[in-house]
Amino acid sequence: MGKLTELKPFSSLIDILQNEPNTCIDIVKQCLNNIVSQADLNAFVRTYDGEALTTADQVAKKLHAKKAGKVAGMVVGIKDLLCYQDHPVQASSKILEGFISQFSATCVQRLVDEDAIIIGHQNCDEFGMGSSNENSAFGPVRNAIDTTRVPGGSSGGSAVAVQADMCHVALGTDTGGSVRQPAAFCGIIGLKPTYSRISRHGMIAYASSFDTIGIFAKDIRDCATVLEVVAGADTFDSTVSKQPVPHYSDYLTFSKKAKIAYLKETLAYTGLQDEIRLHTTATMDALKQAGHQVEAIDFPLLEYVLPTYYVLTTAEASANLARLDGVRYGYRSPSANTIEELYTKTRSEGFGQEVQRRILLGAFVLGANHYEDCYIKAKKIRRLIKDKLQAILSDYDFILLPTTPSTAFKIGFNAHDPLAMYWADVYTTLASVAGLPAISIPNGTDQQNLPIGLQIIANSFEETHLLGFANYIMQLPKKI
Ligand code: GLN
Hints:
Elements (H helix, E strand, L loop, with lengths): L13 H6 L3 H15 L6 E4 L1 H16 L10 E5 L26 H8 L3 E6 L33 H8 L5 E6 L5 H7 L2 E4 L19 E6 L2 H11 L28 E5 H5 L5 H16 L3 E5 L4 H19 L18 H12 L2 H14 L4 H25 L2 E5 L15 H5 L6 H6 L3 E8 L5 E7 L5 H12 L6
Parallel strand pairs: 2-3, 2-4, 7-8, 7-9
Antiparallel strand pairs: 1-3, 4-6, 5-6, 5-10, 9-11, 10-11
Helix pairs in contact: 2-3, 10-12, 10-13
The structure holds glutamine.
């Protein structure tokens, strides 16, 4: 086992790979070495060492022959919610033990077709339900900056794998913040594109009207490159947008003067850590200094965002997870004697506590007695939130807000208080409820040196501006 070594961004390796194709084999070895030497972080649930090296060898030959794809040699990790043909996928749950994917998720396939190298499946909260990566059948993931702390969730393994140089980029899923929140906790970039920008085919569903594939990277160009490869129409997903896919990596500069809104309630929230408030306002001040317009907007609906999210997502989850019954996939209880016992025992033994809690809550809000006053009401509030945000974004280019109310908390800190855990998503669920694109970028650190994230929300399908502006802010000098 070698020493941990720093992984250069993929965008900086393109010329090297053209001139020295075999470098791509060395890079895979480097990533595998970094995975082994940091195995205690528990970022991966499965690595595909031999295969990754074989692919690297084939990619090197293609590079040599000048026939390689757009992301030839990029090392990619995928969340354990994304199907990869002929490989296991478990959603970090016992209930999918032994399940093998028969096809690859469209986003994975598109990267493979462009000669990316898939290095393994990454740990996550079971079925994407959680904000700390503590709800995994494979055990918690640890934040590489401080291993006593969580990496965030649910795509915690994917965030840590990028943070700790185990792969160039990772594909996660973001239903209510699962890419942005762990990106913030780990000090990297996390992009949730517009709902429907990327096909969901081959993603294990949690809440289908929210589920979005997202991208983790340290380098904004890598993030943009992956988006342009994976986004766009797909015959396997009737909900995916057919809008043309821009060449995102050509839009990484931002030269105009932006009109930016911030929502007063987000900074007034009492649960917001002081240092995060300070860093967010420092960035806004720097933007003003640079000639951009930054204005406060009232958004009294903020307190309804999180409850709306949890009512609707649990309802959708209870329907989506009904298929996991011990008959069709994965785990089956060995002690069932009747068909009813087969269902109940399989589900009680196979699902973890948080997943069971959400299925019960979802069944409750969809029940005849609560359908109108919970489910339908939440759908109406979702519409109000969407309309209000849309109205703001017809007047402003971006909305700025913190990604999370606190920096990475200690493992176990919120584990026995589900409501406290849910409040970790207060700022990320906003873009999710409205289906808007949002990105989390690093924005300084707190006194304990823990990373702080800044979130930028743009209008639907405005990922070009979003990436360009994110890149601009990351280079903006700030006074703090
Ligand atoms: N933490 C949120 C939840 O538990 C978000 C999860 C996600 O985006 N997959 O639902």
